[in-house]
Write a structure and sequence with these properties.
The chain is α+β, with helices and mostly antiparallel strands and 261 residues long. The protein contains 9 helices and 8 strands.
């Protein structure tokens, strides 16, 4: 059933999700951390390029005091997620890690209206990515059947969509989690701008809350955006709050500047 979205409806839908069941903290994982021991603050948008003198050169309008480990791709490599069709796949099989370029978008969860907006925006840019030889990988939280709902109703290409129901990649990347981040972070207000609101209305015309993960605690997870060239991390963005997505122009510019096979 399609829903009609207005600013009050968006806000009330977030609170509805928060009241479904008690929320739990993310599951602890046995994987090694990709964060340095001195990491104490947040990373917004970080352009990492080891070949440059400054390995933490910042993308314009970005700020950061943290760095990912150079082994980030290897740490993520053994994480198993699922295709939207339900097949298990290792993270290191998602793109050519010898020289391929990939945009890895981690959505909050498949029942998040703002993530339908982001998925719609990424789909509209798919031709640009493909023409540049860049692979688009969109990962969401929830079971593969939830991914299929988004893919069918948005619609979104199944071959670019993956499910991480246990939030393994999200935890290893240190993406934000919590009630305050999800419902009260000032960064979330940008979704109510006129341009974003119109895009959101268009994206959720076939929305259904049935795409929300069975593990309701997952709705407190925030997403992020990453660009890889082989195993090298070129760009990283952690959403500060719901709807605080990486500027797509930054992603396009990074991909266009990277020579791809």
């Amino acid at each position: 059933m399609a829903i009609r979205i207005s600013p009050p409806t968006i806000t009330s839908s977030f609170y509805h999700l928060s009241s479904i069941s008690p929320f739990q903290s993310p599951h602890s994982l046995s994987h090694p951390s990709i964060w340095s021991p001195t990491t104490t603050t947040t990373i917004r948008s970080l352009n990492l390029h080891p070949s440059r003198k400054n390995p933490t050169a910042l993308v314009p309008k970005a700020s950061s005091t943290a760095e990912f480990s150079p082994e980030i791709a290897d740490v993520l490599g053994d994480v198993n997620i699922f295709t939207a069709s339900g097949d298990s796949v290792a993270f290191n099989q998602l793109w050519d890690q010898s020289e391929g370029t990939a945009v890895v978008a981690l959505l909050r969860h498949f029942g998040c209206p703002c993530c339908w907006e982001l998925a719609s925006t990424l789909k509209e840019s798919l031709a640009k990515f493909e023409s540049a030889g860049v692979k688009l990988i969109a990962i969401g939280i929830g079971e593969p059947k939830k991914a299929q709902i988004l893919a069918e109703r948005l619609p979104f290409p199944l071959e670019s969509l993956y499910a991480d129901p246990e939030r393994k990649a999200y935890n290893l990347l240190g993406l934000y989690y919590g009630f305050g981040r999800t419902f009260f972070n000032p960064a979330s207000a940008k979704v109510l701008s006129r341009s974003r609101f119109e895009a959101l209305k268009k994206a959720v015309k076939n929305y259904t809350i049935e795409a929300t993960p069975d593990d309701r605690g997952s709705v407190l997870q925030q997403g992020g955006m990453f660009v890889f060239k082989g195993k090298e991390l070129l760009y990283a963005w952690k959403d500060e709050g719901t709807g605080d997505h990486a500027p797509l122009d930054d992603i396009i510019n990074i991909c266009c500047k990277v020579p791809v096979a």
